[in-house]
Automatic annotation (TrEMBL), chain A:
The lineage of its organism: Bacteria, Pseudomonadati, Pseudomonadota, Betaproteobacteria, Nitrosomonadales. GO terms for molecular function: 3-isopropylmalate dehydratase activity; 4 iron, 4 sulfur cluster binding; metal ion binding. This is 3-isopropylmalate dehydratase large subunit. Catalyzes the isomerization between 2-isopropylmalate and 3-isopropylmalate, via the formation of 2-isopropylmaleate. It comes from Novimethylophilus kurashikiensis. GO terms for biological process: L-leucine biosynthetic process. Residues 7-461 form the Aconitase/3-isopropylmalate dehydratase large subunit alpha/beta/alpha domain. Keywords: 4Fe-4S, Amino-acid biosynthesis, Branched-chain amino acid biosynthesis, Iron, Iron-sulfur, Leucine biosynthesis, Lyase, Metal-binding.
From TrEMBL, chain B:
Heterodimer of LeuC and LeuD. Gene3D superfamilies: Aconitase, domain 4 (3.20.19.10). It comes from Novimethylophilus kurashikiensis. Residues 1-132 form the Aconitase A/isopropylmalate dehydratase small subunit swivel domain. One of its GO terms (molecular function) is 3-isopropylmalate dehydratase activity. Its EC number is 4.2.1.33. HAMAP family: LeuD_type1 (MF_01031). It catalyses: (2R,3S)-3-isopropylmalate = (2S)-2-isopropylmalate. This is 3-isopropylmalate dehydratase small subunit. One of its GO terms (biological process) is L-leucine biosynthetic process. Belongs to the LeuD family. LeuD type 1 subfamily. NCBIfam families: leuD (TIGR00171), PRK01641.1 (NF002458).
């Protein structure tokens, strides 16, 4: 019978299955960061247990790390509670023998950037992390999703996860993207179409010629935001682009193991005629640059559009949500998106902080200046290696000459657990993934956009269609 | 984990859709390395009028009188009634920890985000999906009657209203078993140690590159 990619990934990892469909799924790669792991390690210690397979774990501090000067190391983290969390990760990794890229290791970075960068994320794997954006790794034809801290402890102790198979959704994007339209715009357009709960209960496979045409960076951006559509897991079939990206990375298989692995990975695609529980289709050529206007990623419009009118809401619940969003965002119905001025710009996060994202933003920023009304424009590379690569290409100079700040890698202002944040009322063009109330700082107002669109907004001081820029 | 069998609880209504886990417990409180103590900061940005940080004496902070959970009639609530896609966003288990610490043991909504839904069961909280029309009806009944309580009977998979209406709900057999007995998954999974080892041995031969 024809199988979906998800069927293949699921079936190859089932260790045991109960009558009600509850299964034990074997986990190949366990990524760990400092925020969601301390209670899990503590639980393990209290029960006198050890990690089942320590070699499957890769740890990195990313949420709490400063993006400014780090020359004094972890002891230089100003907030004592943040510092303790990073120190706790370091200590747990030492105690259990877990491989960790510490804060001042050049390989340090956002967990969802470094996994693929190191080849620690491979096709065919099950990948988990106590972080909802683990869906990112599905770009490699892997089954990857976020888990809670109890599950982090469970995977540490047993190398397995208790799970039930999701339904399968195919999001098919055919055709050619317009110039200036990116994977981020596809992600936001999909969420605009199906809503933030549209993918709940599903694993999404992104398919179609527009997806096959995306780089690995683009596929990661897309899968990253599957969770914003409600789906725990997003994935893309393996092809030459996947295999070329993985080849030669530090954790990737070598020599004869490489050939065997590639032969297996080549089978990781949905079979012709495989049945999905739901199919959503978009035409790539119709997708415009997207800007969110509200406090949920589904509150999104084209850059040429306007803040929607209450009359367009589907029901009373949505009308209530929109009214609260207008008030929180300081916007009125029917305002043009291009008339919204911004105070800050954030280019970074596990969604958009890879080398291709920085190149795209730098192309827009080159030879231009950040607008006078923009108080702060931050570029935060996804990892120390991305930063080094960007510097080698001279991107840092382009950004700095334009008036952007060039920072050290980490999650930064995506969720403002470190010192990078919005003040109440400040409005930000952000390449991150969530525009929830308070996400980038209490009272802060977030508009999600692509790196190109964020850079263009920084220069113009308001949202602008990067295609005419 | 505490068992969940039957709950007779005061109901608090949170009439919003898409309540995300950033709203349930803001990020600054995620710096804690403990599992407990998050209750006073549940819904922090809605609940208080000033900005909250870890270590503050929450009893001295100005409360937002307009936030529904601050109304005296809802103090002591253990059932949260809310709208669709509750718990969307971040996978932070701090969200169910905060709700549990606040006193909620059951949450009723038309739908939940997957990761949050799963995390609830790991912490002795029962999330219950009911039809949007029933949820609407419950919102109306809660508004109309101070002290409105629901009985949540997990064994029989039924919610009983004060008028005696019995509303059936679905729950996975495995999750129900764990909640009724207060079992956590690790102990249960370790009964399958031999199966895991056997799987691993075979798998190591098929895909040795995963074990480098």
């Amino acid at each position: 019978m024809a199988k979906t990619l998800y069927d293949k990934l699921w079936e190859s990892h089932v260790v045991h299955q109960e009558a009600d469909g509850t299964a034990l799924i074997y986990i190949d790669r366990h990524l760990v960061h400092e925020v969601t792991s301390p209670q899990a390690f503590e639980g393990l210690k209290l029960a006198g247990r050890k990690p089942w397979r320590v070699g499957s774990i890769l740890a990195v501090p990313d949420h709490n790390v400063p993006t400014t000067d780090r020359s004094s190391g972890v002891s230089g983290i100003a907030d004592p509670i943040s510092r303790l969390q990073v120190e706790t990760l370091d200590q747990n990794c030492t105690d259990f023998g877990v491989t960790e890229f510490k804060m001042n290791d050049q390989r340090q970075g956002i967990v969802h950037v470094i996994g693929p960068e190191q080849g620690a994320t491979l096709p065919g794997m099950t990948v988990v992390c106590g972080d909802s954006h683990t869906s990112t790794h599905g770009a490699f034809g892997a089954l990857a999703h976020g888990i809670g801290t109890s599950e982090v402890e469970h995977v540490l102790a047993t190398q397995c996860l208790v799970a039930k198979k999701s339904k399968a959704m195919q999001v098919k994007v055919e055709g050619q993207l317009q110039k200036g339209v990116t994977a981020k715009d596809i992600a936001l357009a999909v969420i605009g179409k199906i809503g933030t709960a549209g993918g709940t209960g599903y694993a999404i496979e992104f398919a179609g010629s527009a997806i096959r045409g995306l780089s690995m960076e683009g596929r990661m951006t897309l899968c990253n935001m599957a969770i914003e559509a409600g789906a725990r897991a997003g994935m893309v079939a393996v092809d030459d682009i996947t295999i070329d990206y993985v080849k030669g990375r530090p954790f990737a298989p070598k020599a004869e193991q490489w050939d065997a692995a590639v032969a297996y990975w080549r089978m990781l695609h949905s079979d012709e005629g495989a049945k999905f529980d739901a199919v959503v289709e978009l035409k790539a050529g119709d997708i415009q640059p997207q800007v969110t206007w509200g406090t949920s990623p589904e509150m999104v419009v084209e850059v040429s559009g306007r803040v929607p009118d209450l009359a367009q809401a589907k029901d009373d619940v949505q009308r209530g949500d929109w009214e609260r969003a207008y008030a929180y965002m300081g916007l009125q119905a029917n305002m043009r998106i291009s008339e919204i001025n911004i105070d800050k710009v954030f280019i970074g996060s596990c969604t958009n902080s890879r080398i291709e994202d920085l190149r795209a933003a730098a192309t827009v920023a080159k030879g231009r200046k950040v607008a006078a009304n923009v108080k702060l424009a931050l570029v935060v590379p996804g990892s120390g290696l991305v930063k080094a690569q960007a510097e080698q290409e001279g991107l840092d100079k382009i950004f700095k000459e334009a008036g952007f700040e060039w920072r050290e890698p980490g999650c930064s202002m995506c969720l403002a657990m470190n010192a990078d944040r919005l003040e109440p009322g400040e409005r930000c063009a952000s390449t991150s993934n969530r525009n929830f109330e308070g996400r980038q700082g209490q009272g802060g107002r977030t508009h999600l956009v692509s790196p190109e669109m964020a850079a263009a907004a920084a220069i113009a001081g308001h949202f602008v269609d990067v295609r005419n820029f | 984990m505490d068992k969940f069998t039957k709950l007779d609880g005061l109901v608090a209504p949170l009439d919003r859709a898409n309540v995300d886990t950033d709203a349930i417990i803001p990020k600054q409180f995620l710096k804690s390395i403990k599992r407990s103590g998050f209750g006073p900061n549940a819904f922090d940005e809605w609940r208080y009028l000033n900005h909250g940080e870890p270590g503050m004496d929450n009893s001295k902070r100005p409360v937002n009188p307009d936030f529904v959970l601050n109304q005296p009639r809802y103090h002591g609530a253990s059932v949260l009634l809310t709208r669709e896609n509750f718990g969307c966003g971040s996978s932070r288990e701090h969200a169910p920890w905060a709700l549990l610490d606040y006193g909620f043991r059951a949450i009723i909504a038309p739908s939940f985000a997957d990761i949050f839904f799963n995390n609830c069961f790991k912490n002795g909280i029962l999330p219950i999906k009911l039809d949007a029309a029933i949820v609407d009806q419950l919102f109306n009944e809660v508004a109309g009657q101070e002290g409105y309580k629901l009985t949540v009977d997990l064994e029989n998979q039924v919610v009983v209203t004060p008028s005696g209406q019995r509303i059936a709900f679905e729950v996975d057999a495995h999750r129900k078993y764990c909640l009724l007995n207060g079992f956590d998954d690790i102990g249960l999974t370790l009964r399958h140690v031999d199966a895991i080892k056997a799987f691993e041995a075979k798998y190591k031969v098929a895909q040795p590159w995963l074990f480098n």
